[in-house]
Amino acid sequence: MKGPLFYSKILLFGEYGIIKDSKGLSIPYNFFKGALKPNATSLEAKKSNESLKNYALYLEELSNEQPELVTFDIKTLKMDVASGMYFDSSIPQGYGVGSSGALVAAIYDKYAFDKITVLENLTREKLLNLKSVFGAMESFFHGKSSGLDPLNSYLSLPILINSKDNIESTSIPSQNPAGKGAVFLLDSGIIGETAPMVQIFMEQMKNNGFRKMLKDQFIKHTDACVEDFVSGDVKSLFSNIKQLSHVVLDNFKPMIPAQFHKLWKHGIDTNDYYLKLCGSGGGGYILGFTEDLEKAKNSLKGHKLEVVYNF
To answer: Are 217 and 247 contacting, i.e. CB atoms less than 8 angstroms apart?
Structure first.
């Protein structure tokens, strides 16, 4: 037994906004991946096996409570877990690249009854159905999940979120390997926790001014970035990303690790690069966009940049 590989994902645009119906764009990121494997021997593998025991109980409950949503072959799952199955993954946890999403996709793929497969015609209805199933499955890890990370991992396709009830798989412009511009990941060196960050966001949502900013600025620029990226309008994309980076620095300070506030502002002031949250923030990766990768590397000396996409 060695399961198929499931990849990490990057939500390029839409973090926090999609909770309030902004657009979003999520792409698979094949640099990190995970698969279900038998016979946990290492300490890490045994830890994964332990957490799968609890997860199996959760899925059994989910099958019993919402059989119309999803049911699993719980008997086989429990047997496999009892014999030492674990999730072998290179996806860093707490980094906003979908570690729990890949695990959820792998479990669904192997144990769900009547599963929707990647090979069939993926109508909007089927995508939304999958998203609900994955949301319920992933909420074990995060408290509340949109289901998008596992969806991305499962399909291994870019996903365009038009609104909560309107998602589609999409194609994005081909990368230009010789291009100077890039999307990159910046390692904050800190593990981020999703739940507390979402909690801060929900608290701030009670504030009228914050809600207005979210609608008039954050969502406006997020939607524009998604449209620019999908249509390949790089010039407009960078003007919108700069504004988005500014809005996040001004209004999402708690989600940006303190030692990155200066770097964030430096990018906006010099136009060498623009930073944005990758996932819920609080640590993990920070997402960067630059029209000139060499310039950005110079400006961010001492930091490791991982290129995700070339313009």
So the answer is: yes
pLDDT recorded at residue 2: 60
User: Cβ(244)–Cβ(225) under 8 Å?
Assistant: yes
- In sequence order, the 6+-apart residues with CB closer than 8 A to the CB of 57 are none
Give this prediction's pTM: 0.89
Pair 100, 6: CB distance under 8 Å: no
Architecture of domain 6-169: 2-Layer Sandwich (3.30)
pLDDT, tens only, 106-140: 999 999 999 999 888 888 899 999 999 999 999 99
When pLDDT is cut at 50, 70 and 90, the band that residue 163 belongs to is confident
CATH class of 182-310: alpha beta
Q: Where in the sequence of the chain do the CATH 3.30.230 domains occur?
A: 6-169
Tokens matching residue 185 = 């990941």
Query: Which residue type sits at 6?
Result: F
Q: How many residues does the chain have?
A: 311
Instruction: Please state, in angstroms and rounded to a whole number, the distance separating the CA atoms of residues 138 and 211.
Output: 27
Query: Cα–Cα distance between 95 and 189 in angstroms, integer?
Result: 9
